Amino acid sequence: MIPAAFDYVRASSAEEAIALLGQHGDEAKLLAGGHSLVPLMKLRLAQPSVLVDIGRVNDLSYVRDAGDHIAIGALTRHMDVENSPVLAEHVPLLAHAASHVGDPQVRHRGTIGGSLAHADPASDLPATTLALGATYVAQGPNGTREIAAADFYQGYLTSALEADELLTEIRVPKMNGAGWSFQKFNRRAQDWAIVGVAAWRRGTESGVGLVNMGSVPVLAAAVSAAIASGADVADAAALAADDADPQADLNASVEYRQHLARVLTGRALSAASA
Amino acid sequence: MEITVTINGTAHTADVEPRTLLVQFIRENVGLTGTNIGCDTSSCGACSIHLDGEAVKSCTVLAVQADGAAVTTIEGMAAADGTLHPMQAAFMENHGLQCGYCTPGMVMAATSLLAENPSPTEEEVRIGLEGNLCRCTGYHNIVKAVMACAES
Question: Nearest-CA distance from A271 to chain B in Å?
Answer without folding.
Answer: 22
